[in-house]
Design goal:
With 343 residues, the chain is α/β, with parallel strands linked by helices. The chain is built from four helices and 39 strands. It folds into three domains: 87 residues, MurE/MurF, N-terminal domain (Udp-n-acetylmuramoylalanyl-d-glutamate--2,6- Diaminopimelate Ligase, Chain: A, domain 1), CATH 3.40.1390.10; 203 residues, Hexapeptide repeat proteins (UDP N-Acetylglucosamine Acyltransferase, domain 1); 34 residues. Strand 22 and strand 23 form a beta hairpin. The longest helix has 21 residues.
Length: 343
């Protein structure tokens, strides 16, 4: 859709330097933008593309405005302003209000106003969907589930019995909320399933990526705080508690009964051990192994960067010799200490 720069300026509350009547119809990077494109510049390292851009308008900070050859919108946070502009340029498609004829809704389920229920959806007994909830094709909602206003289940999402989803959440295809946690008791070499009788409570404004799973608690609920963002293929095990506005990149996993604080960031393919605590503001870089509690805010890393295989094999061999080398070094230090004492 076409939006004038003046309308963007008024709606987003940004200062415009340029022709208010000019319009944009799409968004693009600085390098690929055309004469009807809106772009942005947040990282000064990419300012080299600004001089050559053909965009109709660029959202950027005051400090870089003078370098732009095209009209600009001034923002303290250009990335955030660009995100808000994208929502105007590309309004989210909304499913038709009503229940598709192939959907099955239990007679004891409750639907709010302007709810959209897509094809082949199942909603169990006692479940409650708030106003403007959208449930896409193939979703399964168990019994006594509560999904609050303006939340969207995109497609093939499962929310199982007694789970709670807050307002304005978005659950992407294949995500599962409320599967059994990994609980088994061993007897004489045989594993017996332990019933998982807790549930999952998801706060407001939470995003759950494709094929991400949040297991129900063994006894107490698994809790996901407000504003949490889970990328694709993330595993949250039973009884975990994830604090408000914490983010997980793809393929990260958290073992059971771990507490992660507010405003944390867990890098992709990281593994967090069970029964530990990460305090507020902890950031874990990608492919890290977190085996103990991290209570102080800061950036933590583990693992090693990729290197030629030949060097890696040598280093692995030396790694297995570290204990012996440390013992030998300690003996040398003790001999030197004794020699100093005798002198």
């Amino acid at each position: 859709m076409d939006i004038s720069l003046g309308e963007l300026s008024d709606t987003l509350g940004l200062e415009l330097r340029g022709d208010a009547e000019a319009a944009v119809s799409n968004a693009a990077s600085l390098a690929s933008a055309g004469p009807r494109s809106l772009s942005f510049l947040a990282d000064p390292r990419h300012r080299k593309h600004l001089a050559e851009t053909r965009a109709a308008c660029v959202i950027l900070s005051e400090s870089m405005a003078a370098e732009s050859p095209v009209p600009v919108l001034i923002a303290a946070n250009p990335h955030l302003a660009f995100a808000r502009a994208l929502a105007l340029l590309y309004p989210q498609r909304r499913e038709p209000v009503g229940v598709h004829p192939t959907a099955w809704i239990h007679p004891e389920a409750t639907l709010g106003e302007n709810v959209s229920i897509g094809p082949h959806v199942s909603v169990g007994r006692g479940s409650r969907l708030g106003d403007r909830v959208q449930v896409g094709p193939g979703c399964v909602i168990g019994e006594d589930v509560a999904i609050d206003d303006d939340t969207q289940l995109v497609a093939n999402v499962t929310v199982w019995d007694r789970c709670r989803i807050g307002k304005r959440c978005k659950l992407h295809p294949g995500s599962v909320v409320g599967a059994d946690g990994f609980g088994f008791a061993l007897d004489a070499g045989i594993w017996y399933r332990v019933p998982q009788v807790g549930a999952v409570r998801v706060g407001d404004d939470v995003d759950v990526g494709c094929n991400t799973t949040i297991d129900r608690g063994a006894l107490d609920d698994t809790v996901i705080g407000d504003g949490v963002k889970l990328d694709n293929l993330v595993q949250i095990a039973h009884n975990c508690r994830i604090g408000d506005h914490t983010v997980f990149a793809g393929c990260a996993g958290v073992a059971g009964s771990t507490t992660i604080g507010k405003h944390c960031a867990i890098g992709g393919a990281s593994a967090v051990n069970g029964h530990i605590t990460l305090g507020d503001g902890v950031q874990v870089t990608g492919m890290s192994q977190v085996t103990k509690s991290l209570l102080e805010p800061g950036i933590y890393s583990s693992g090693t960067a990729v290197e030629p295989s030949r060097d890696w094999r040598k280093n692995v061999a030396r790694f297995h010799q570290l204990d012996d080398m440390a013992r030998r070094l300690r003996r040398v230090e003790q001999k030197l200490d004794r020699g100093s004492t005798e002198d």
